[in-house]
From TrEMBL:
The lineage of its organism: Bacteria, Bacillati, Cyanobacteriota, Cyanophyceae, Coleofasciculales. Carbon 2 of the heme B porphyrin ring is defined according to the Fischer nomenclature. Its EC number is 2.5.1.141. Gene3D superfamilies: UbiA prenyltransferase (1.10.357.140). HAMAP family: CyoE_CtaB. Keywords: Cell membrane, Heme biosynthesis, Membrane, Transferase, Transmembrane, Transmembrane helix. NCBIfam families: cyoE_ctaB, PRK04375.1-2. This is Protoheme IX farnesyltransferase. The keyword Phosphoprotein does not apply. InterPro entries: Protohaem_IX_farnesylTrfase, UbiA_prenyltransferase, UbiA_prenylTrfase_CS, UbiA_sf. It catalyses: heme b + (2E,6E)-farnesyl diphosphate + H2O = Fe(II)-heme o + diphosphate. It comes from Limnofasciculus baicalensis BBK-W-15.
């Protein structure tokens, strides 16, 4: 049943709007938009059409919001059981599931229309595939049935990287898929660090997250493995693909070193929730700064400065060799 027997509990229109806004889980969306924007800047060699950027980010926001609304409807039973989610609009009775469903469909349709008209059909279809994958594969098939839920389901969170590239080029290149792979490999350490902190909530509602089923030691070992993978993969944008340069490489190495250090510390202390919290928070900062590095590295002025610096270094080396 999509309906709920609890009447909406609002005093005014502003509270209604707030409840619908909360349905979209807005804190999750900015990170998805950052990967979209980074992908667009890289695809456009640092010269993105401002209107296309705006439309793609708005369309991506609507698609992500739609997916989160559908997720809230599907998970309303476990949201009611978990203390941290009990006050969400549907389990608290502020919004009926029927109304939320119409809201989610409306957001999805608006996203598809906007991206089709102002970007291209491939971009719109990729955004819709993100909704389908998140709901059909992750939420329905994986989340409640396998410890690998977040690994496979992580593909949904990586799709925005493809959306951004397709919006600029109308196709998907190896660079786009490598960006997808970076986000895909980053997701398990990011989410499992959170799962370590709230494993009791997941255990209470029977969600087989890795810390619940296999314990902290196995989880921190998996976090370490995926962190070991994501750091070198992030450097493949420099070699062999050659789509990023020295500045991005320096940023990626610095950020990756800190990521590895925190994952190693957690591996040595699997039951330390403060270390898990630190890793979780840093993983967000890591992705934000890595994407910022992609953007800055792609700018024409960065290319010019790098070329100028390279010429001066070569001239200095040549002068020294003549001494």
């Amino acid at each position: 049943m999509l309906g709920t027997t609890v009447s909406p509990q609002h005093d005014n229109l502003w509270q209604v709007l707030q409840s619908y806004y909360q349905l979209t889980k807005p804190r999750i969306i900015p990170l998805l938009l950052i990967t979209t924007a980074a992908s667009m800047w890289m695809a456009a060699d640092g010269q993105v059409d401002p209107l296309l950027l705006l439309v793609t980010l708005v369309g991506g926001t609507l698609a992500a919001a739609s997916a989160q609304v559908f997720n809230c409807i599907y998970d309303r039973d476990i949201d009611y059981e978990m203390l941290r989610t009990r006050h969400r609009p549907i389990p608290s009775g502020k919004i009926q599931s029927r109304d939320a469903l119409l809201f989610g469909i409306g957001l999805g349709c608006l996203s598809f229309t906007l991206l089709t008209v102002f970007a291209n059909l491939l971009t719109a279809l990729l955004a819709m595939s993100g909704i389908v994958f998140y709901m059909g594969i992750y939420t329905h098939l994986l989340k409640r049935h396998t410890v690998q839920n977040i690994v496979i389901g992580g593909a949904a969170g990586a799709i925005p990287a493809l959306v951004g590239w397709a919006a600029v080029t109308g196709e998907l290149s190896w660079a786009a898929w490598l960006l997808f792979a970076i986000v895909f490999l980053w997701t398990p350490p990011h989410f499992w660090a959170l799962a370590l902190m709230i494993r009791e909530d997941y255990a209470k509602v029977g969600i087989p997250m890795l810390p619940v089923v296999e314990g902290e030691e196995s989880t921190t070992r998996q976090i370490w493995i995926y962190t070991l993978l994501v750091v070198p993969v992030s450097l493949m944008l420099i070699y062999p693909l050659g789509v990023s340069g020295f500045l991005y490489g320096a940023i990626a190495i610095l950020l990756g070193s800190i990521f590895l250090k925190k994952a190693w510390q957690l591996l040595q202390n699997p039951t330390d929730n403060q270390l898990a919290r630190s890793l979780f928070k840093y993983s967000i900062l890591y992705m934000m700064l890595l994407c910022t590095g992609i953007v800055v590295d792609s700018l024409p002025i960065t290319h010019q400065l790098t070329a100028l610096l390279t010429d001066k270094v070569e001239m200095s080396i040549a002068a020294m060799s003549r001494l």
